Amino acid sequence: MYNAKAYSATSSISPLALTNIKRRDPNEYDVQIQILFCGICHSDLHQVRNEWSTLMPTVYPIVPGHEIVGRVTKVGSAVTRFKPGDLAAVGCLVDSDGTCPHCKDGFEQLCPNQTLTFNSPDKHLGGVTYGGYSDSIVVNEHFVLRVPSNLNPAGAAPLLCAGITTYSPLRRWGVTRGKKVGVVGLGGLGHMGVKFAHAFGAHVVVFTTSPGKQEDALRLGADEVIVSRNTDEMQKHAGSFDFILDAVSANHDVNTYLNLLGRDGNLTLVGAPEKPFAVSAFSLIFGCRSLSGSTIGGIRETQEMLDFCGVHNITADVEVIPIQKVNEAYERLLRSDVKYRFSIDMTSLRSE
Ligand code: NAP
Ligand code: ZN
After folding, report:
1. What percent of the chain shows pLDDT beyond 90?
2. Extended beta strands in the chain, E state
3. Nearest residue CA, atom 23 of ligand 1?
4. Could you identify the atom of ligand 1 that is nearest to the CA of residue 43?
5. 265 and 289 in contact (C-beta within 8 Å)?
6. Three-state DSSP class for 200?
């Protein structure tokens, strides 16, 4: 074991602050990574504040962060795909059983024995796993991704969660040229959803509660932008969408969006608000619509997404911050005041 620097919270009401954590020495299958950038996902905030307590209660201290890009510093003797000096990335998963039907099909994100990057039982050291708000991490090679060399590492980090979480359902639901696609909530996930849907050739409509984001939405690839509080504007699109991706972090009326779907249209939830919400049966019955969910993506698909981003030069729009600004960044996230992902420059942690 060795000591690593990290930022952790010790309770649901504590700010994140500097601490020391233990990391395992890399075993033969492991890759040790010096972290360069870590994105801030709203899931970090949900879990730091124990907002998902019924499903996955937070174990404190928590070190969040699952959008990690860094430089390989050491590899185990059985590692074949990485060597020291390589640029590498880690997302929301650091382990799974590798034997269940989901793992065999490349859907590690559905494995019942998965290990999440943070707040998940740590099979090696006991306690829970610690995430990317840290100067280094040690991860089994299977869960380490390659980052195309043309991508800026600060903007590539958010691809590891916001990227794959939006890429995967857009692919699954066949978003291509000729489809009308809505993206609800122009935050970290939403803005990646817009970039991918646009790159896949769809007609993209953004729904936002923030009038000030309209110009950005168009620049990011939207064909139309609707301020969702304008009911007349919303009504014009009733029954017209093939697919809607809902990436809102807070409670809202999903029926409003279901009613915009056309025949056999689908709305996929990726946003994970704290409280359950009501769905009117009629929103689904009329139009034979469906409502579904999606969680990140498997390792194979995550690499496919990164490679797609390499070819199409897609990264997140990031505001790079030092780790010392992380608590302020959380408050801004709650005000929907981020354009469009915070990416923490981890060199700021090394100087502490
Ligand atoms: P984010 O950057 O904070 O973006 C959320 C956006 O939702 C905001 O920018 C805002 O967009 C909109 N919004 C916020 N409050 C709202 C309200 N009261 N009513 C309507 N819209 C509101 O968050 P994120 O990191 O993209 O994450 C979004 C959600 O996805 C979170 O719940 C997160 O935990 C979840 N998530 C799920 C997965 C998965 O695998 N399914 C993976 C990662 C994250 P506008 O300003 O445009 O309205
Ligand atoms: Zn995330």
Report:
1. 97
2. 2-8, 17-23, 30-40, 68-75, 87-90, 93-95, 115-116, 136-140, 145-146, 180-184, 203-208, 224-227, 241-246, 261-269, 290-293, 318-322, 341-345
3. 42
4. 34
5. yes
6. coil
Ligand 1 site-directed mutation target among 267, 336, 339, 340, most atoms within 8 Å of CB: 336
How high is the pLDDT of residue 352? Answer: 84
Nearest CA to 297 out of 177, 154, 149, 143 is that of 143
Which residue matches tokens 């972090």?
249
CB 164 within 8 A of CB 296: yes
Q: How far apart are the first and last CA of the chain?
A: 21
Report in angstroms the alpha-carbon separations of 208 from 124, 224, 250, 275: 43, 11, 13, 21
Report percent pLDDT > 70 for the chain.
Answer: 100
pTM for the model: 0.97
Contacts of 104 by beta carbon, 8 Å cutoff, 6+ apart: none
- pLDDT recorded at residue 66: 98
Distance 25 CA to ligand 1 centre (A): 36
> What integer is the mean pLDDT of 63-70?
98
Question: Is any ligand 1 atom within 6 A of the Cβ of residue 43?
Answer: yes
pLDDT of residue 274: 86
Burial of residue 284 (CB within 10 Å: 0-12, 13-18, 19+) is middle
Question: What is the per-residue pLDDT across 117-156, written as a single tens digit (0 to 9) for each?
Answer: 999 999 999 999 999 999 999 999 999 999 999 999 999 9
- Average pLDDT on 110-114 reads 98
Q: Which tokens belong to 318?
A: 């990031």
CA 109 – CA 157 distance, rounded (Å): 18
- Whole-number Å distance, alpha carbon 14 to ligand 1 midpoint, is 22
Give the mean model confidence (pLDDT) for residues 35-61: 97
What are the strands of the beta sheet with 224-227, ordered from one edge?
A: 224-227, 203-208, 180-184, 241-246, 261-269, 290-293
User: DSSP assignment of 18-33, as one string?
Assistant: EEEEEEPPP-TTEEEE
Amino acid letter, residue 258: L
Residue with the smallest CA separation from ligand 1 atom 12 is: 185
Instruction: Please give the average per-residue pLDDT across 94-103, as a whole number.
Output: 98
Q: C-alpha angle 35/38/43, rounded to 5°?
A: 140
